[in-house]
Design goal:
heterodimer, A: about 280 residues, Rossmann fold, B: about 400 residues, alpha/beta, 2 domains, seven-stranded mixed beta sheet, binds thiamine diphosphate, binds magnesium ion
């Protein structure tokens, strides 16, 4: 079969993002990454929930599972466990990933199924028009918090590193070359890989603009050793006003294998599959 | 008389909640409810309302937080819609079981899937039997008037049950209407301060949330059922006092030109306003049709409904959600059950309309009313008609 091309990933679904939205950059790079990795669309499953970011799965041509707000990580892991021949990529907003679905994120890092979780972190609830998300800055004035957000923002990178998440990276929607490299590494990584993609929200967040990120972001260089968990945590917790881009942390914990049973192997090929599947699910009850 | 202002219904509803001097709010944004909680956050931020506003990370947390605040004795308000209500589901049952009189506004909206943010009654039909008092508002004025009525009923010592105020998402929530505001003095006269019977209090410790072993669970659930059924009389009182205060009359069951009607349409929510226009149009042609709607939905106003339908030979029922797997949908099921014991049993014609925001026109309503008259004149009843569905 011929190598997949960008054309294979194009569709003509009308786009509903605001002009200038960081999501456009992520969509372009995602398509490029899938082509770069030689993945044909039928082998790719994109999982998402509800939000501006999750809409991305409708704007390119491949398998999609768009469920409920914040639940995408749970469905994606399960799909991968049962259908190992799919490359599974999750697209969440920061609200869905860290708020409504925060519990799933925590347990996905522990479970370590071979999926890639891309969080479009615009520091805001975009779809519902500008309320605070778990990553909105303390003191930032947004809807529902007219006097500024009281709570501390979550530090999802530090959280993930502290939980030994197998792959932790950060990139920026407007730095296509960097994002492409990070996404390809994340998708290739055998295990749960997590990428926080910083993304300006041109409609609801006047603080974290393209210029803001241009000013505060820096790229990790070869002096950073991503296998050094303490060093990675130090980068994530630096609090020096600078924003790191790159692979912060990586380990080689073996990923959870696809559903199999002792003596049977791949459940998809065994004759009494429903009964055996039920037994596997029982283990997780 | 209070002042009339052109205001979006959601904003008026939020203003009304604030003027009820709510002390605690926990909420999470979801379309088309978000304007309510955003507006309340401004009340709090501007210092016009002494209330704790707890922004949470999900509706599951919102309802849990609301119960916590109500348990310590705060007058507590929240609002949600659709998936938000669905996500609250398991906690919704805890509120009446612990007798915590939270008031919640629900902007009625369809449920996924397919993904839809538009109006129908899928959300609330799913949470029909949760043990809350449930009331419907059909326009912005009613949203404003009925919030204090909800608190009055919920907190009444003879009730002490949580209460939902339902109103249609977008078609009511986002509509700007001329709304007569009550004065703060009227609110204060109508709604006394919340005086909880029990609360979490360091001076008088209690444990809430006991285990219901098989020897007690049954009785506890039945006590809750009786409390809810008994709330009806208190709702009547609350509506009567409201009328005295502001001159607008609310009934457990609302009727429109139903007295002499040959056919009556039964529906819920704001579609009644479209239906009234259709009724007027048909009346001009000499066709005797009318409407009946429940204002109070739980406890179910059985006697009042039977009285409202009287001896009418044909009743039409509009459902705005599907009871998957049953050929009669929820509202139709309720009305069929109503007539089983009634002295007079009319012919029943069932319709589904306006799913997921599908437009319902005056023409649709006229079609429905004309269908009822055909049945009155001998046409067969037929199965449920899905009005406005594309073939
Ligand atoms: C249970 C539930 N609650 C609330 C909502 C409303 N809602 C939809 S998206 C969203 C937040 C969107 O923010 P984020 O996840 O950061 O995505 P973004 O739109 O910013 O890309 C909310 C609150 C919902 N769909 N489901
Ligand atoms: Mg966001």
């Amino acid at each position: 079969m011929a190598d997949p091309t960008l054309q294979d990933y194009k569709n003509d679904v009308p786009n509903a993002w605001c002009p200038g939205c960081g999501n456009f950059g992520i969509l372009q790079v995602l398509q490029k990454a899938l082509v770069t990795l030689g993945l044909p669309p039928e082998r790719v499953l994109l999982c998402s929930g509800i939000g501006q970011a999750p809409k991305i799965v409708h704007y390119l041509n491949c398998n999609a599972f768009d469920g409920l707000h914040g639940r995408e990580v749970a469905s994606a892991q399960a799909a991968k466990i049962v259908a190992d021949d799919l490359t599974v990529i999750i697209h969440s907003g920061d609200g869905g990933a860290y708020g409504e679905g925060g519990n799933h994120f925590l347990h996905a890092m522990r479970r370590n199924v071979d999926v890639t979780h891309v969080v479009h972190d615009n520091h805001i609830y975009g779809l519902t028009k500008g309320q605070a998300s778990p990553t909105t800055d303390q003191g930032q004035k947004v809807a529902v918090h007219p006097d500024g957000v009281a709570a501390l923002p979550m530090n999802p990178l530090a959280l993930a590193i502290s939980q030994s998440c197998p792959f932790v990276a950060q990139s920026l929607s407007s730095q296509a070359d960097h994002l492409l490299d990070v996404l390809c590494q994340a998708i290739r990584h055998p295990g749960f890989s997590y990428v926080n993609v910083l993304q300006p929200c041109v409609s609801w967040d006047p603080v974290h603009t393209y210029a803001y990120y241009q000013k505060h972001c820096y790229r990790l260089d070869t002096s950073h050793d991503p296998t050094d968990q303490a060093a990675a945590l130090a980068v994530a917790l630096a609090h020096d006003g600078r924003i790191p881009l790159g692979v912060l942390y990586r380990n080689d914990r073996p990923a959870l294998r696809p559903v199999s049973e002792p003596g049977v192997g791949d459940l998809r090929e065994c004759p009494d599959r429903p009964a055996r599947l039920a037994r596997v699910f029982d283990r997780y009850r | 008389m209070g002042k009339r202002k052109g205001v979006e219904s959601s904003i008026a509803l939020a203003d009304s909640a604030a003027m009820c001097r709510i002390e605690a709010i926990a909420a999470y944004p979801i379309t088309p409810q978000t304007h309510i909680v955003e507006h309340l956050s401004e009340w709090v931020n501007d210092g016009h309302l002494e209330a704790e506003f707890v922004p949470v990370e999900s509706e599951h947390s919102a309802m849990s937080a609301a119960l916590g605040m109500s348990a310590v004795g705060a007058r507590t308000f929240t609002a949600t819609s659709s998936q938000g209500l669905a996500l609250m589901h398991e906690i919704l049952f805890i509120a009446p079981a612990m007798r915590l009189p939270v008031v919640m506004a629900v902007a009625n909206r369809s449920l996924s899937g397919p993904i839809s943010i538009w109006n129908d009654h899928s959300d609330i039909m799913t949470d029909r039997d949760i043990g809350w008092v449930q009331i419907f508002a059909e326009n912005g004025q009613e949203c404003f008037d009925l919030v204090p009525a909800c608190f009055r009923v919920a907190e009444d010592k003879r009730v002490v049950l949580p209460t939902i105020l339902n109103f249609d998402g977008f078609v009511v929530s986002h509509m700007i209407e001329p709304i007569e505001f009550w004065t703060q003095e009227q609110f204060d006269a109508y709604l006394p301060p919340f005086d909880p019977q029990i609360k979490l209090d360091v001076r008088k410790p209690v444990a809430m949330g006991a285990v219901g072993i098989p020897e007690i669970y049954y009785e506890a659930r039945l006590a809750q059922q009786n409390a809810l059924l008994n709330a009806k009389a208190v709702v009547v009182e609350a509506f009567a006092e409201l009328e005295k205060m502001v001159g607008r009359k609310y009934n457990l069951v609302e009727t429109y030109k139903a007295d002499d009607a040959d056919a009556i349409l039964y529906l819920m929510g704001s579609l009644s306003e479209t239906a009234m226009t259709a009724v007027d149009n048909l009346r001009k042609q000499g066709k005797k049709v009318g409407l009946v709607r429940p204002r109070l939905w739980r406890p179910f106003p059985t006697e009042e409904l039977v009285a409202a339908f009287g001896n009418v030979p044909v009743v039409g029922v509009c459902d705005r959600a599907l009871a998957f797997g049953h050929e009669h949908h929820m509202v139709a099921q309720e009305i069929r059950a109503l007539f089983y014991d009634a002295p007079h049993r009319p012919k029943l014609v069932e319709f589904v309309i306006g799913l997921g925001g599908r437009d319902v026109t005056i023409g649709d309503m006229e079609h429905i009313l004309n269908r009822l008259l055909e049945v009155k004149n001998g046409a067969p009843v037929g199965p449920v008609e899905y009005v406005g569905v594309r073939k």
